[in-house]
């Protein structure tokens, strides 16, 4: 199972919005709503921001939102803050071959 | 609050077995609603799911095709923990290894990560 495709980098000024795409196939993102998004700061474990495409765990600011269209999922970070500078990954459920496929990761820089 | 605490050596010799343990607090390894997983992360391979163990009246194990011939995940109910064993390691297995709980397709709790270097 190939990795999910994300842009290597994204950036925005404080207060702006940035949207990260995650492109898969009909065997993963296209077929299931088990798409989640994670934030990872250097040297730390990933932290879940969005699950089941668009749901937010308690404690995650509503500045983070998720959506899906066809084989592509998206994460939008609104009102960028300095602490949002991190790597972001998507994960999707894929029943064929390997159960979970991971995104290639996007480094978000707050200018 | 669920917490996962990883332990194990940070250096393994080529051809030997990499073994890591993940101790669970705040949940049970024999929970019948979640699964317990191992993931690794390296600059060359990115994030890679390795496998999982879970209990649904009996124990099940599922492994990624890429490591299926070399990996074993075990559960220990007496210590409420699970472990990863990866045989015949090579320098390509050098990575940060994470354990994680998966609940309804979401990796909701993670261990702190262990950097394992394969080198003689």
Model description:
The complex is a heterodimer of chains A (111) and B (120). Chain A is 0% helix and 43% strand. With 111 residues, chain A is mostly beta strands. In chain A, the strands form 2 sheets. In chain A, strands 1, 3, 4, 7, 8 and 9 form a 6-stranded mixed β-sheet that branches. Chain A has a 3-stranded antiparallel β-sheet with strand order 2-6-5, with no helix packed on it. The model of chain A has no long low-confidence stretch (mean pLDDT 93). Chain B is globular. In chain B, the strands form 2 sheets. In chain B, strands 2, 4, 5, 6, 9, 10 and 11 form a 7-stranded mixed β-sheet that branches. A 4-stranded antiparallel β-sheet of chain B has the order 1-3-8-7, with no helix packed on it. The mean pLDDT of chain B is 96. With 120 residues, chain B is an all-beta fold. Chain B starts with a strand and ends with a strand. The chains are: A mainly beta (111), B mainly beta (120). The interface between A and B is medium-sized, with 26 and 22 residues.
Topology:
The complex is a heterodimer of chains A (111) and B (120).
Chain A: E1 9-12, E2 18-23, E3 35-40, E4 47-50, E5 64-69, E6 72-77, E7 86-93, E8 100-102, E9 106-110
Parallel strand pairs in A: 1-9
Antiparallel strand pairs in A: 2-6, 3-4, 3-7, 5-6, 7-8, 7-9
Chain B: E1 3-7, E2 11-12, E3 18-25, E4 35-42, E5 46-55, E6 59-63, E7 71-76, E8 81-86, E9 95-103, E10 106-110, E11 114-118
Beta-strand proportion of chain A: 35-45%
Give the low-confidence spans of chain B: none
Mean pLDDT of chain B: 96
Return the structural class of chain A.
Answer: mainly beta
Number of helices of chain B: 0
Radius of gyration of chain B: 14 Å
Number of strands of chain B: 11
Quaternary structure: heterodimer
* Major beta-sheet overview of chain B: 7 strands, mixed
Search tags:
heterodimer; A: 111 residues; mainly beta; 6-stranded mixed beta sheet; 3-stranded antiparallel beta sheet; 9 strands; 0% helix; B: 120 residues; 7-stranded mixed beta sheet; 4-stranded antiparallel beta sheet
